[in-house]
Write a structure and sequence with these properties.
This protein is α/β, with parallel strands linked by helices. It has five domains: 197 residues, Rossmann fold (3-Layer(aba) Sandwich), CATH 3.40.50.140; 234 residues, Rossmann fold (3-Layer(aba) Sandwich), CATH 3.40.50; 177 residues, P-loop containing nucleotide triphosphate hydrolases (Rossmann fold); 108 residues, no CATH class; 50 residues, no CATH class. It contains 29 helices and 29 strands.
Amino acid sequence: MILYKTFCPNCGGIISSERLSRGLLCEKCFPYNTEDVCSLLKEGEFLRVCQLWENIRRFQEFFKEKVGASPWSIQKTWTTRYFNGRSFSLIAPTGIGKTTFGIILSMFIAGKGGKVYLLFPTELLCLQAYERFKEYNFTDGLLLYRSRASDKEEIKEKISKGSFNILITTTMFLYKNVDIIPKGIFSLIFVDDVDSILKTARNIDKLFLLLGLTERDISFALRYINEKRLKTDNNKDASAETSSMTEEIREMSKKIKGSLIVSSATSRPRSSRILLLREILGFEVGHPRISIRNIEEFYEFPSKGIFEESINKVKYFGSGGLVFLSEVYSKDLENYVQLLRDSGIKADLANARSIEDFKNRKLQVLTGLASYNSPLARGLDLPEVIRYALFIGIPRFEITLRYKENPSALCTLLGNLLPWMIKKDLWDKTVLRRLSQDLSRLRSFKVPSYNDLPEDLRRTALNIKDFIEALFNNDEFLSLIENSDEIAIKLRKEDQEIEPIAIIPDISGYIQASGRTSRLYIGRLTKGLSYILVDDRKALNALKRKLMWYSEDIELRGVRGVDLEEILRQIDEDRKRQISNVNLKEKIKTDLVIVESPNKARTISQFFGKPSRRRLRGIDVYEIPLQDRYLTIVASKGHLVDLNKEEGIYGVIPQDGNFIPLFEVIDSSREDIIRAIREVSLEVDEVFIATDPDTEGEKIAYDIYQALRPYQKNIKRTEFHEVTKRAFLEALENSREINLNLVKAQLLRRIADRWIGFEVSLYVQRKLSRSNLSAGRVQTPVLEWIVKRSREARKKLYIVKAEIDG
């Protein structure tokens, strides 16, 4: 048995490892042996956890009542965070139910007397959300603002008076009308599409005003961010002024009223205002790369014209289709809709009225552009209706690279050409290596003309331009470019001049658009079909390469040999199944991984792309969505506890013939770590303790286990011997229980360190009258051995030499 000072979750007092390992509180707080703590506990800090669990239970029941299925693990994680009073970003793949979660949570909050503000990027998505509330039979205090509504002034007046329970508007409404929206009254502000907020950086200021801060608070926080950046850039330590500002930021965060929940971003915001979210609310807007999908994805090279072939495909696939035209055909969109109608297909462009008709099966297909910003590609959530997505042309952008005038275009062109030329060995390697170095220097200058470059770089850039012009005068080289599927550049001849065109696959547009076919529906992901009619082989290969980088599980396949009729049958059958007949399987579970080193935590999180990061009690918490897991990674920073120095025999208490070690938290920073990992452990399905694979790491794991056990039942020990992606994933699949024999061995070593080290050190200090001397469990016997050997070496040795005749 071990005693832990301050480990009791209820009073912060002493508690034994025996009680902690059963999930109990100390005997003073809870003099019972039952593990049903919350039913008997009357007072103390742990009551907050009991209340949290009760709120989560009630919300899950409410969710199931409305949706027909329990929330998924990741939705439970979000639920826990909200009821813990946290603001956060929804780092989750397309189709996992972020909007559904926001709507159900809003109804739950409003039902308890709170007010909610939901922000969407377009009025179309606002209307869809409004209709979903009505489908859930929630209309009490539901207020939707539409700019074209006849009663919009009356609605504005209601908004200004706070006469609503749930308010739904676009982000543009917030931008133009923030003055009339009441401040500090919202229990929740839910931003369904944070990209629309980030387009105008000052929208972030407006969100903070709604959360209860002032203009002065926001200006101060921005100055603090700039001060920190200057210190970092100049490699300087934080000054006394910066430390004082940090404390003021902490106090400012306490003024926040309500929670802010935002969806993850696809763009990379550059404004420093995005850092306000991190400094005040403790989270960063993430950029998930994984998509949870149940989609069959194919491509076909049409034998006829691409529009003509698309008509045949729509007739073959039937109703429930979304038809996306590549951006390169944007001018043909309206004419294409008319072509569908002339062919006997009930079709329309995506708008509020047509979406309603499509939902009611009055339309067979909806059409739009294959772009992330297309209203057809984002926010449309009709899993019971949408069966397939048909793409006319590869979703992409084509940009003419006017490299003769623009050095940025020159960088893009050279960046595409160089890897291909090096791989194909098309030029002198020394020249290509020098060009790579020049390219790295040039890329740091984003300027519109060569004259804006520093003189030495301008000469370098002009030399590169001349080099490329010479290449483009070489017919053999041009033929290699035209015939290569590996390089995303195509050439167009314009007035005897060669114009290179960069082919940029719209990966976000494709993921979003095809993702409409596979959505969370009565507890499972529906099966969908994505079908691309290829109009450009280079663009297809560029898209396939990008998809491979984005996710190993998304694979575009040629359609030859595929039984499309069987796939369509499965898609239809999938939508006919009733929830009672389905053995639901969780698609994604949530895990907390605890390592020792902050560097190791950061390295592991970067195995899977750019992680999202939260700051919890000053601790970095990394988040990564994988295909089947949602990982949270934190570092313990080594040992959390050590033997007490004052009580018993140097921290070991004799009791009834036994010796019981008493451990205490090392310092206040470790207290913060314990609080942080306890809070995060409440959010997940399972905890993996991945401290170092040795006896010391096992003891650290044991201490972490004891600290977390009252909060989390599912705790496993895992270890990896190399910091690689493969080793890490294998470790998660091969967890085990904590090895108590290793813990005992380390415990014995630590007690020996303390007893021998303290006692011998005091003896040496007294004997030699020198307080700066010390001795320990290992160095003391080693020193003794050295001394003995030294003495023996100094002893005189006598050699007898005798000579004997014969």
